[in-house]
Amino acid sequence: MPLISAITSLFSERKIKKNLGNKHSKDLFLWIRENVTDSHIAEQMYLDLIKENPFNLAYLEKNEITQKLCSNALAIDLSVKDLIPSEFFTLNMHHTLYKNDPSYFRQLPDSMKTADLCLLAVKDNSDNLNYVPSNMKTSTIIKAAFENFKNQK
What we know:
This is DUF4116 domain-containing protein. The chain is an all-alpha fold and 153 residues long.
């Protein structure tokens, strides 16, 4: 029994470190903030820390977050999406999240939905037609949703 507890504890500890970074990471961000005055150098240092652990994104101040840092973090681990401010999400990032989790289409802002993505979404699941913006409900998209629905029955 103690072995099982030790293994469980180890996995929990790794998960916490992965998801929350660690105190040392937080200190590194603070050190950069206090000692590096060149914003380009600071961003590169932040990028190195994010490449080590994308959840280090949580240690950035709002004014330090950049598109590049967010894109790199998401490319490493999609579950950091909740740490990325909405203004830094790009169309490509939203499409990546959808491709990895088709239910994400429902959460996707209408402004980020393209005709191609809407078509793909209704081909994957006809219920996604409910989440296609009305100005994008073309005959092609409606027909694709119907074909998908018809083939499910």
